[in-house]
Fold:
Amino acid sequence: MHAVREPLWREVLGEQLRAMRRELGEKLSDTAGRAGISPQYLSEVERGRKEPSSEMIAALAGALGTSLGALTGQVAGELNRRHLAAVSPAPRRHITGPVLMAA
Structure:
């Protein structure tokens, strides 16, 4: 049995940041400008390719109208959800249709 690769913190962080930015209807340049970084760097962070510092994560959280604590909680919650989904047994399938019963 293969072990499922857990996503990296930076990957889930990037997904959360991108989702928040898109929810606000912003372009990369809008959010990046408020955070004091380049749009190219923000793009790399959103794609999970860069590991931003805690200061950078706080700046991005602020630029998106949230706090470092709230963003961290969202990322941790998503990591936990994925972990539980990966280790939980698959739900049993219910058989539908005629059932034969022994008498």
In short: The first helix runs from residue 9 to 23.
